[in-house]
Amino acid sequence: MTVTEDQQPAGPFGSASPEPGSARRVVGEMVDAGLLDDLMDRVDRDGLALTGAGGFLPELVKAVLERGLQAELTGHLGYEKGDPAGRGSGNSRNGSTPKSLDTEVGEIDLDTPRDRNSSFEPRLVPKGARRVTGGSPAGWTR
């Protein structure tokens, strides 16, 4: 017998089938896969901090933002990192610039990518933004 998604019992957050792509659904999938149990074991066993300097959540936010910024730069340049199509394009990746962001889970040091022509204007973490609140650029302040 096959169980369809609408027949699934309520998950750890009380909803039988959260909206596809929602954070609730992703967290539920992580819970079901045992990933959060592993994380909490590391908190107990290794003393892993969840927030603050060196904590799991600031490091996760850093990784997500840096990956998103790299994707934005790829879109701006029109080619993937290392792609031969970028040779002779007139613009290319040019390292990164360090940036400190104050977030709800702690301060993070971000490496923001840059391009040779300085024409890259990131939207995920706009130039000059120093404080992240509310999880979206609309709630970020300088």
Descriptive account of the structure:
Mean pLDDT is 83; it is low at 1-15. The radius of gyration is 19 Å and the shape is globular. It has a two-stranded antiparallel ribbon. 31% of the residues lie in helices and 15% in strands. By secondary structure, it is of the alpha+beta class.
Brief summary:
With 142 residues, the protein is of the alpha+beta class. Helices cover 31% and strands 15% of the residues.
How many helical elements? Answer: 3
The 3D shape can be described as: globular
Report the major sheet.
Answer: 2 strands, antiparallel
Q: Which structural category fits the helices and strands?
A: alpha+beta
Query: How many domains, as an integer?
Result: 2
Order of helices and strands: HHHEE
Helices and strands, with pairings:
Elements: H1 23-32, H2 35-46, H3 56-77, E1 93-103, E2 106-115
Antiparallel strand pairs: 1-2
Keywords:
globular, alpha+beta, single chain, 142 residues, 3 helices
